[in-house]
Amino acid sequence: xxxxxxxxxxxxxxxxxxxxxxxxxxxxxxxxxxxxxxxxxxxxxxxxxxxxxxxxxxxxxxxxxxxxxxxxxxxxxxxxxxxxxxxxxxxxxxxxxxxxxxxxxxxxxxxxxxxxxxxxxxxxxxxxxxxxxxxxxxxxxxxxxxxxxxxxxxxxxxxxxxxxxxxxxxxxxxxxxxxxxxxxxxxxxxxxxxxxxxxxxxxxxxxxxxxxxxxxxxxxx
Length: 221
Prior knowledge:
Number of helices: 8
Strand content: 15-25%
Strand order of the largest sheet: 3-2-1-4-5-7-6
Number of strands: 7
Order of helices and strands: HHEHEEEHEHEHHEH
Structural class: alpha/beta
CATH class of the domain at 37-175 and 209-214: Alpha Beta
């Protein structure tokens, strides 16, 4: 793990010396810039943008898929009133997604709201075409978003959740103790240097990421 530069360490000490109240400075950090978890999500997606192509599925809205290079974007939502939704249904239900239809799936900060995330992952993998990729992010820590917010994961937990689905999985945690605290306090990524944000401590992930690659017929030979 990299040691932070002296200037950054001093700035951090000054920043946190004035933060002795229990209430966060903002709800997520949007009003101050880019929320800390979003910075890590976008870094992960950008690192794997080459896998987003063709027909891509995203949840709720086209937040990232088009930006990353998808040719066609389908939006799935359980809420039929969502005008962006091209597929209405529950990811935990087997008949929601068409089988072997997507070249990529972008699944960010979604599994924590589902009653059966393992079942949802199984259905999502079934919806991938052979040779396709799913990019997943989940919270390791976060404030509770609403009454449907159920789960948090460690890297090992997400690795076990993703096992046995017929995909190769690459799982990692992103963050450190400072960015964990900053995220919970509602600070924004713009308040920290890139060196601070990129410092990784496996004991303190803000988010956990997984790249799931569904094998193609050639991979099985």
